Amino acid sequence: MEGKRAESDRRRAAPRFIDRATVVAAALEVFSQLGFHGASTRQIAKAAGTSLSNLYNYFGSKSEILAFVLEETARTLADSLEAAVATAGKGPLGRLEAAVRAYVDFIVAQPRASVVGITEFRYLEGEGRAEVVTQRDRTEAVFRDAISDGADAGDCEVRNLGSAVRGVVTLCNSMSTWYRPDGELSPVELADLQVDLVFGLVRAAQRPGSVG
Questions:
Q1: Would you say residue 36 has pLDDT above 50?
Q2: Is the pTM above the cut of 0.70?
Q3: Domains of the chain
Q4: Taking the CA of residue 92 as centre, how many other CA atoms within 13 Å lie in the half-sphere pointing to its CB?
Q5: How far apart are CA 75 and CA 141, in angstroms?
Q6: Residue 3: enclosing H or E segment and its boundaries?
Q7: How far is Cα 63 from Cα 37, in angstroms, rounded to an integer?
């Protein structure tokens, strides 16, 4: 009888099998709270509700988990910006505004992913780092194209295109470090604020709300 009870207890306590998305969500939770060096694969497994051995069915190391999470984050962001700009029309300032609003939407929807993407990137090396950089370059290209076209059309004024693009990207990135879901401003108000700041940075000829 005791043997059967022990076997039943083991079955109930056995770690459940999980999908990759669950592991990623758990990793984001742990990385956002403890950072890469403070986190352990055991803590990630616990947050995912699985065993350490099962976690290794998905990823070979903590570094591999971080690389996947950051690439997934950067790819999703780039996809969002490109989609927003594609529906914004041809006007450079309209495209710039759409890109900024899409960036804000991403941060609001995925605050943990946004924070981890900014703070833990420095720990990536090799191929994993290169893949994340490739996706980040896509995001930068969205802003670069809009600002460059705006400068050529006389819709904005920048002394140096590279500096202007870096400034805009940095401004958008920084929201990840101060955004709080329980803050006073709504997502729409946050987006309005960010667009206004970006338009000021590139000295846009028109202010937000007046762009056709």
A1: yes
A2: yes
A3: 1-60 (1.10.10.60), 63-212 (1.10.357.10)
A4: 20
A5: 13
A6: helix 2-13
A7: 10
